């Protein structure tokens, strides 16, 4: 089928991380719909709830020990069309910015780390804060924590970049991110406290990730290392290092990742262009030079 070929092609491409994240979330959502319909027709609706529970993040330590994978799998689960549409739209809009300026690998790192830190905040809150400990056990699912990390990360990276919002017109994304965080804070005492706490964790990670990256520290290296290892296992191609006359030479991809910071004259010209025509008038190369200069 052409649909299956399109899916296979999307995952075969190495420069397609944003579409792959979107596609994984959609495929999981479709799979859950099919399971729910089949179990309903078969009269075994409890099976659907069991499947969701297996991959949702529980607040109870005993349940977490039995299902340790849920610290990540919860970030790919959605229930309800509005739930997934809202998350995927934000992932696409803000993820496109992160991907354009930082690349696919850092986008994936931001998503994964946002999900993990969101899970940590949720677990610590429900096991250490009395008001949550006294309540019933909770479970959390959804990509909101990971997506919030990407929203805040994009706003930290490009605070004055503007989106044209319906009814509001052009709005700088730093204000959009601030509203997202405030909504999450306001919702902690509501019916989705666990999810809102995960959002806050993701927001903090997104801010710290970009600030550390601008200082020259890539917090996503462990995620990238695991991804490289898994890729070599499934592809069957080992990572090669070439040694010549006692000198170890890094692969070409590693050499290309070295940040070459632009000269001040170039930055002055770019800033002049922004003052004349606005930030959106910059080319992709000019935007990347401006970001590299911010790492000084």
UniProtKB/TrEMBL annotation:
Its main location: membrane. It is found in: Membrane. It is a multi-pass membrane protein. It comes from the Bacteria. The keyword Transmembrane helix applies. The chain crosses the membrane at residues 21-42, 71-95, 107-128, 140-158, 165-187, 193-210. Keywords: Hydrolase, Membrane, Protease, Transmembrane, Transmembrane helix. One of its GO terms (cellular component) is membrane. GO terms for molecular function: serine-type endopeptidase activity. Residues 68-210 form the Peptidase S54 rhomboid domain. GO terms for biological process: proteolysis. Residues 263-296 form the DUF6576 domain. Belongs to the peptidase S54 family. PANTHER family: PRESENILIN-ASSOCIATED RHOMBOID-LIKE PROTEIN, MITOCHONDRIAL, RHOMBOID PROTEASE. This is Rhomboid family intramembrane serine protease.
């Amino acid at each position: 089928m052409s649909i299956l070929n399109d899916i296979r092609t999307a995952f075969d491409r190495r420069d397609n991380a944003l579409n792959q994240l979107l596609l994984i979330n959609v495929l999981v959502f479709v799979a859950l719909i099919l399971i729910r319909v089949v179990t309903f027709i078969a009269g075994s609706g409890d099976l659907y709830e069991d499947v969701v529970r297996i991959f949702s993040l529980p607040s109870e330590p005993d349940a977490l020990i039995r299902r340790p994978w849920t610290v990540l799998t919860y970030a790919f689960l959605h229930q309800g069309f509005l739930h997934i549409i809202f998350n995927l739209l934000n992932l696409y809009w803000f993820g496109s910015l992160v991907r354009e300026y930082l690349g696919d690998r850092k986008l994936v790192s931001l998503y994964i780390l946002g999900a993990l830190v969101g899970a940590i905040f949720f677990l610590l809150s429900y096991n250490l804060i009395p008001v949550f400990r006294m309540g019933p056990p909770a479970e959390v699912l959804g990509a909101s924590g990971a997506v919030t990390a990407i929203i805040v990360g994009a706003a930290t990276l490009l605070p004055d970049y503007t989106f044209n919002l319906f009814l509001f017109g052009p709005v700088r994304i730093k204000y959009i991110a601030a509203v997202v965080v405030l909504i999450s804070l306001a919702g902690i005492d509501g019916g989705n406290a666990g999810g809102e706490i995960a959002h806050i964790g993701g927001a903090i990670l997104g801010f710290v990730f970009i600030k550390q990256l601008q200082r020259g520290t890539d917090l996503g290296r462990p995620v990238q290392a695991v991804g490289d290892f898994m890729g070599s296992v499934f592809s069957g191609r080992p990572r090669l290092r070439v040694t010549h006359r006692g000198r170890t030479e890094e692969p070409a991809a590693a050499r290309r990742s070295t940040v070459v910071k632009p000269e001040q004259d170039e930055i002055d010209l770019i800033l002049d262009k922004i003052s004349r025509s606005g930030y959106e008038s910059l080319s992709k190369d000019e935007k990347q030079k401006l970001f590299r200069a911010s790492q000084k």
